[in-house]
Design goal:
heterodimer, A: about 350 residues, mainly alpha, globular, B: about 350 residues, MetI-like fold, 12 helices, elongated
Chain lengths: ~350, ~350
């Protein structure tokens, strides 16, 4: 008993310490990539015809005239102080972009996760329970197809069906123009859904929700295939256990056995996998945002890449790296709390 | 009467297959279960192979199959093709916004896709497998460092990594000629994403194989590390490679399409690429023009599904944990040639 209670803090400390080399390596890779990039960021931001003196001045201001080692030091120093840099193509800071565009991406990602969990868990339990029936085959095929179909193609198909054919939903954007302007005036968190609730703008809330359905569902489908497979396998395995037999023997209705006893235990691995999906979700978000013209951080990254705005690209990629590492940290800790076996491995 | 199951047959029970020695003995031994496959896994493998084969034929014979060239926008009389025309007799799948034939783009697009994927898979295999072999076999600080770097790369959103590399590599392969430089840089950016996967799988299986008695015996007999790795370790981890290679090829195809969709893939003047075609089709989707997006997307889905089916069934067949060999028909014939029967009436 003493050992098991002592091992949780120890596990957490080890896990926390592992974050440091991980972050260091990721950030170093980002730094190196951005230094070997073609073209001069200063020249790119000022246009080809800027006088040499202006270029030199800006290069000095941005620290591009320093040695690589000094730039490397500056980069980490800035990150420690929460300063990720200022754009060379506009006057915005990376922090500002993360606060605004990042909020839009967060809204999209959360909606996608909800869709993915509802669809993935629901279908997974159903086809796990009715294993080897036509329903199972259909569900598994659905899982394969959601993986095999490019996320932007699914988005285009949704636009063809729900926008062009049925006229049910808007094709792009985060909200209608008027709602957009109103909510930007009411910005508390920059997350439109939350802002609309805070300011009591129920019409705006409805508008924002309607805009969220297609992008959220598109990105959610990308992720739900993994959940379907995982839940199905786990439900099949847990249904073989003796305590399930015991529950049935006690006369507990079948749906209760499946949902209460089998499903709950099948959920533990799902928590772990949610963490692994963070990277997939970010990749998918870049594509989904482009498909639906969603003003999120992925679209911003592509825009700044096209403008050769290295500071911004470096900053956004750095933030992505930090997000991935922290999500996996949080998930590992949560898993360790739920499942004691993890701590011993 | 005798049921067909009871008929004594002289057919020899296929005994342990004699595996020849020679260069690829290890690989042949590893692939032996594929030839012995029965039932559903075999059919899944066949369907997958058939799907892939269709696109391989498209790719090889593109100039003969395709009615037009992928850059062609004038017909025989010098008239321009109609813009975004629905499918008709002259253009089976219609024409797109670039005035080119959609079907021709599908056919030539399979050439691009397979070229990029083949190059990417081969390069990442050539780098990832040896790295995994040596890292796993020798261990030590080099191994730990490599694992950290590979894990960091693996944790990072794969599409973003590919976008960054593609951005950095733009125009770097000009010496390969205009039509091939884009394909090469797309392939390299995809390669970077998949090296860690080969590395991880190979390294982990090397670590377990390394401690096997036969490897130890070889070492004790004084075999050089080169011989031990090449002869004893490699042959016992190589069965993982076909599985990862096909599954990665499927994933690489999606990454390529994603790159093309964001404008960082193969340039449209160099080759036909499905992802780029979908990007151009995006603007028309809300207007109900379906043929420019449905067909290229369908091509991606079919090829990815084909590769996934091949990979999954190879995994079922080659992975000893998942593999349950079909029971061979046993002939119960005793020495006197009498067949014990219980249906004698």
């Amino acid at each position: 008993m003493a050992r098991s209670s002592g091992s949780l803090p120890r596990y957490l400390v080890t896990r926390l310490l592992l974050v440091i080399p991980m972050v260091w390596i990721l950030l170093t890779v980002v730094f190196i990539l951005m230094r070997v990039a073609p073209g001069d960021p200063v020249q790119a931001s000022l246009g080809g015809r800027a006088p040499q003196a202006v270029i030199e001045k800006q290069r000095h201001e941005l620290g591009f005239d320093k040695s690589i080692v000094a730039q490397y030091g500056d980069y980490f120093n800035g990150i420690f102080h929460g300063d990720f840099g200022t754009s060379t193509s506009s006057n915005r800071t990376v922090t500002d972009v993360v606060a605004h565009e990042g909020a839009a991406t967060l809204e999209l990602a959360v909606a996608a996760m909800i869709f993915a969990l509802v669809l993935g868990l629901g279908i997974g339990v159903l086809i796990g329970r009715y294993r080897d029936t036509p329903l199972d085959v259909f569900g598994r095929l659905f899982g394969v197809l959601t993986y095999a179909a490019p996320v932007f193609w699914i988005g285009i198909l949704f636009q063809l069906l729900f926008v062009a054919k049925l006229h049910w939903l808007p094709s792009s954007g985060q909200a209608d123009t008027l709602v957009n302007i109103h909510l930007q005036g009411e910005a508390h968190t920059n997350i439109y859904l939350v802002d609309a609730v805070i300011s009591g703008d129920w019409g705006g809330l409805r508008n924002v929700l309607v805009h969220l359905i297609l992008p959220g569902l598109t990105l959610g489908l990308l992720v739900c295939g993994v959940f379907i497979r995982l839940v199905r396998v786990n439900v099949i395995q847990t249904l073989k256990h003796d305590y399930i037999e015991a529950a049935r023997a006690r006369g507990i209705p079948e749906h209760r056995v499946v949902l209460r006893h089998a499903f709950r235990n099948a959920l533990v691995p799902v928590v772990t996998v949610i963490g692994l999906q963070a990277a997939l979700l970010l990749s998918g978000a870049v594509l989904t945002e482009t498909t639906f013209n969603w003003p999120g951080i992925g679209q911003a990254l592509i825009r700044y890449l096209n403008n050769r705005d290295y500071v911004m690209v470096q900053g956004i990629v750095t933030v992505f790296a930090l997000i991935v590492v922290s999500v996996s940290l949080v998930i590992d800790v949560v898993t360790a709390l739920i499942d004691p076996r993890v701590r011993y491995s | 009467m005798t049921s067909e199951f009871m008929t004594p047959t002289a057919a020899p029970v296929p005994a342990q297959r004699q595996v020849g020695r020679g260069r690829f003995a290890g690989l042949r031994r590893a692939l032996a279960p594929v030839a012995e496959a029965r039932g559903l896994p075999k059919w899944v493998l066949y369907v997958g192979c058939a799907l892939v084969l269709v696109f391989v034929v498209f790719a090889i014979f593109a100039p003969w199959i395709s009615p037009y060239s992928f850059t062609q926008y004038l017909d025989g009389h010098g008239h321009r093709f109609p813009k975004s025309a629905p499918p008709n007799v002259h253009h089976w799948f219609g024409t797109n916004i670039m005035d080119t034939d959609v079907f021709s783009h599908i056919v030539y697009g399979s050439r691009t896709a397979l070229e990029v994927v083949a190059i990417a898979v081969v390069i990442s295999m050539l780098l990832g497998v040896p790295l995994g072999l040596f890292s796993g076999y020798y261990g030590g600080p080099l191994d730990r460092g490599l694992v950290l770097v590979m894990d960091a790369m693996f944790a990072f959103p794969s599409l973003l990594l590919a976008i960054l590399i593609a951005f950095l590599l733009r125009g770097k392969f000009g010496f390969l000629g205009a039509s091939f430089s884009g394909i090469m840089s797309a392939a390299i950016s995809i390669t970077v994403v998949y090296i860690p996967q080969y590395f991880r799988v190979i390294r982990n299986s090397v670590i377990s194989v390394r401690e096997e008695p036969y490897v130890e015996a070889a070492r004790i007999l004084g075999a050089k590390p080169r011989t031990v790795i090449g002869r004893y370790v490699f042959g016992n981890v190589v069965q993982n490679v076909p599985v990862i290679a096909t599954l990665n090829a499927a994933d690489a195809l999606l990454t390529l399409a994603g790159l093309g969709f964001l404008g960082y893939g193969v340039q449209p003047t160099e080759a036909a690429e499905w992802g780029y075609d979908l990007q151009r089709a995006l603007g028309e989707a809300a207007g109900g023009i379906w043929w420019t997006s449905v067909y290229p997307g369908l091509a991606i889905v079919l090829l990815v599904t084909g590769l996934t089916l091949v990979g999954e069934s190879l995994n079922d067949l080659l992975n000893p944990v998942l593999r349950h060999r079909q029971l061979l028909p046993v002939n119960i014939v005793d020495d006197e040639g009498e067949v014990p029967r219980d249906d004698d009436a």
